[in-house]
Design brief:
The chain has 298 residues and is α/β, with parallel strands linked by helices. The chain contains twelve helices and six strands.
Length: 298
């Protein structure tokens, strides 16, 4: 398995663009009242950018754990308890369907209640709250802003790196949103973080090896949800058979789908892409790859 391929490609992911984005965030922080960080509910630890934590340390923060409908609900409950213990306000959302969106303005008013009271005392009660929206690529930032604004104000696609510059969007709900480009950090100190970001689509697929990513995903699923992996691809006991390598299990996935080449060998590239796509779309099941332990890894 070519684990080093993910690490190398992750480190070199648009370093110039990331430096520009960090400068943009630093310049914009004094202009906002609150920071809304959008995380992936399947990988809350890996999708939390430590660069944003440093830049926004002095501002109140609301965490939106997006793609909730793809995550294991029992594990989401554990993450909610974890963030509460740390003193963070968090909401679980599904921004594609709008689930949880109505709660966001209410939660923002709760977080900023003291500040809003001071504004009212000064005769500034009608002043809109200014919020910066941040997150890794493909986290759902543009979808969130479009939901809040009520119509398409920003370009949104199901691939990383669409938003390229900052823009202010009024929502008509007493809230002005500052959209920013998705940003990855220049180096992953923990290789698992880079792997999880690749699995969930935060890193561009065209710079990564699909078979490599699929084998890493299989390794994760064998530990977190072997029964779901077995059921989806009719693998029987193979998912828990440690005598089989992750690549051999990928071959078994290909065979179960009939992805055979001339001569009877398995088209593992097609099997890999199918596995990745079906994980990302939730067809394998609701799966969370991380538990809120000290390391953030499951």
């Amino acid at each position: 398995m070519k684990d080093d391929n993910i690490q190398r490609n992750s480190i070199n992911w648009f370093p110039g663009h990331m430096a520009k984005t960090r400068r943009l965030l630093k310049e914009s922080i004094p202009l906002v009242d609150i920071v809304i960080e959008i995380l992936d509910a399947r990988i809350p630890f890996s999708s939390h950018n430590p660069e944003i934590e440093k830049i926004a340390a002095a501002k109140p923060k609301l965490l939106l754990l997006n793609k909730e409908s793809l995550a294991d609900p029992s594990v989401s409950g554990a993450w909610s308890d974890y963030y509460s213990r740390l003193g963070y306000c968090c909401l679980f959302t599904d921004l594609m369907t709008g689930k949880g969106v109505r709660e966001i303005p209410v939660k923002i008013k709760e977080i900023l209640s003291d500040k809003l009271s001071r504004y009212k005392e000064k005769g500034m009660g009608g002043r809109p709250v200014k919020a910066m929206v941040v997150g890794i690529p493909n986290s759902g930032k543009s979808t969130f802003i479009n939901r809040m604004a009520g119509f398409s104000k920003t370009k949104t696609e199901n691939r990383p790196g669409v938003t390229r510059d900052k823009q202010w969007i009024p929502t008509g709900k007493g809230l002005d949103l500052l959209d920013t480009p998705g940003v990855l950090w220049p180096k992953f100190e923990n290789s698992v973080v880079g792997e999880n970001l690749a699995i969930t689509g935060a890193i561009k697929d065209d710079i990564l090896d699909a078979e490599n990513i699929a084998c890493i995903l299989i390794s994760r699923l064998r530990n977190t949800a072997p029964e779901k992996l077995s059921e989806r691809y009719r693998l029987g006991d193979s998912a828990t058979d440690r005598r089989l390598s992750d690549f051999e299990l990928l071959e078994a996935v290909g065979k179960s789908r009939g992805f055979l080449l001339s001569g009877g060998s398995v088209n593992t590239e097609r099997a890999a892409q199918t596995l990745i796509d079906e994980f990302r779309s939730g067809k394998i099941g609701r799966i969370t790859l991380e538990l809120p332990t000290g390391s953030g890894q499951q």
